[in-house]
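Researcher: Sequence of Exportin 7 follows. Predict its structure.
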Amino acid sequence: MSRFLEILCKQLYETTDTAVRHQAEKALVEFTNSPDCLSKCQLLLERGSSSYSQLLAATCLSKLVSRTSNPLPLEQRIDIRNYVLNYLATRPKLAAFVTQALIQLYARITKLGWFDCQKDDYVFRNVIADVTRFLQDSVEHCIIGVTILSQLTNEINQADTTHPLTKHRKIASSFRDSSLFDIFTLSCNLLKQASGKNLNLNDESQHGLLMQLLKLSYNCLNYDFIGTSTDESSDDLCTVQIPTSWRSAFLDSSTLQLFFNLYHSIPPSLSPLVLSCLVQIASVRRSLFNNAERAKFLSHLVDGVKRILANPQCLPDPNNYHEFCRLLARLKSNYQLGELVKVENYPEVIRLIANFTVTSLQHWEFAPNSVHYLLSLWQRLAASVPYVKATEPHLLETYTPEVTKAYITSRLESVHVILRDGLEDPLDDAGLVQQQLDQLSTIGRCEYEKTCALLVQLFDQAAQTYQELLQSTNSSAADITVQEASLNSSERSTLETRCRNPQRYELLQTVNAV
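Model: Prediction complete. C-alpha cells:
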C-alpha cells in the first residue's frame, strides 16, 4: 500500500502529464477521506522512501486534526503531537519542505488544542519544554526548535476562517499572556549567545539558525497583542501594543543594543530582518514608559540610528534601505519633535538624516517605494514646528529647504533620463504624485519664502531655455520634447503659479497645448 501511495505522490508532484496528475489527485483525495488514513499516514512516515510521501502524510494529518466535524479524540491528537516531535528529533536532515510541513502540523495541533485538558493539565501548552531538547542538540536540531516556536507564534497570531473569530482571539490572548514573553526572551538570549560565539555565517546551517532566530524575534514583536491588527501596507505608522508585563525587556537598553549590534555584525542578507525588528521596537506604545524612561529609550534609539547613518555600508542593499527608511519614519510617528530635540546628539543626527534624504532623492530611480517614508518623516517634522515648546533648536529651517530642493531638482533632472532611456515616468502615476506633493507642500511651508524662490527660479530657467529652443533653428525635436517635459514637471511642483504670475501660467498653457 505504501508503495502505491508513493507512486501516486510522484505522479502528483513530478509528472508533466495533466491527465496523470488529475488521476493521482483523485486517488489521493480518496486516501485522505478513508477511515484508515491516520494509520496509513504513520506507515508512510515510517516506511516511505521519498520526501513526497512524507509530505503527503504530514499534509493529510494536518487536515485530520483541523476538521471541525468528527474531530480526532484528545488522546490521538496527543499521540500525533508526540510522534511528530520524536520524528523531527530523530530525522533532523529531512527535506526542507517536509520539515516545514511537520512543524506546521505541530503548530496546528497545539493551537487547536490550546484549551484541552487532561487530568487538570493543559497538555498542549508546554511549548518551550517541547523544544528544549532541540535547542540543546546540534545546529540542525536548534534550527528545528526555533522554527517550531516561530511557526507556532505565527499560527496562533493568524485568524482561521474555518473556526470562529472569538475562539481565535481567546487562544491568541491566552498564548500572549502565558507563553509569548518567555518565547521572546528565549529568542533574545539565543541571539546574544549566537552573536557572542563568532558564528561562521558562510556556513549554511549557522546562517540558517541566525535567520530563524531573527524571524522568531520579529514574529513575537509583530504579534497582534490586542486584536486590532491592520494591513501594514495601508498604514505603516502604527503602534505596537506591547503588554505592560514586557516593560523589563525595553527598560533594559541591552535589548535595543542587541539588535543594533547584530545589524553591524551580520551580512546584508540577514540585516533586513534585524531592521524589521528595530522598526517594531521603535514603535512600542508611548504609555509603556514614564517621561524619563521614554527619553532614555529614545536616546538609545537615536544613537543606534546615528551609528547606522555614520556607517552606511549595508544601506545600498534595497531591502536594508527600505527597512531603514521605515525605521526613520517611526522616529516621528511615535515621538514628538519636542522630545527629539532634547536628545543629546540631535543636531548631528538631523544633519545625517537630511544628508541621507537628499542623497536618496537624488537617486530617484533607486527603491522609489521607500521615498514615501522619508517624505513622511519630514512632513511630520515640519508640521510639528508650530507646536514645539522646547528651547533646543530643531534646525528644520536649515534642512527642510535642502530636502525640498533635492526633491524638485531631482525630478526635473530625471526628465532627460526617462525620455532618453524610455523609462516609465513616475509622474504619470497621478496618485503617487498627489501623495508626494501633499507631503512636499507641508515640508516646503516650513521655509515658504525659500521654497517659492526656488520654484520661481527653476521655472524661469526652464521657460527661458524652452523659448530659446523654439527660436533656434538648430534645435532638435528631442531637445524640445525634453524641455517641454521639464516645464510640465515644473508646473506640477509649482504652487499658486497662476495667481503669482499670469504670464508664466499662460506659457504653461501653451506648452500643454503643443
